[in-house]
Amino acid sequence: MKEPEKKSGFNCPNCNFFIEVTLKSLLYAKSQDCPGCLTKFEMDRQESSRALNLMQNLNTVIDNIESVKDFSPENYKG
Length: 78
Ligand SMILES: [Zn+2]
What we know:
The chain is α+β, with helices and mostly antiparallel strands. The protein has helices spanning 23-28, 49-69; strands at residues 9-11, 18-20, 31-33, 40-42. A hairpin with a 6-residue loop joins strand 3 and strand 4 (40-42). The N and C termini lie far apart (56 Å). Residues 12, 14-15, 17, 34, 36-37, 39 line the site of zinc ion (ZN).
């Protein structure tokens, strides 16, 4: 059995089409169209702020990991 891909998004209340919401669209798009029935959804910033915060935290964690990569023990000498 194949595991379903984990995608973020929501089901269209109109046609039940799964609308994929990416981090980029969450951050920058003002609206999202349903590919199934072309209903336009205005992005509610307040509604999605929790998800936004989660994703921004994730980005911060990734940034931290990136900066740790620059760490080398030589910097600790002296
Ligand atoms: Zn739809």
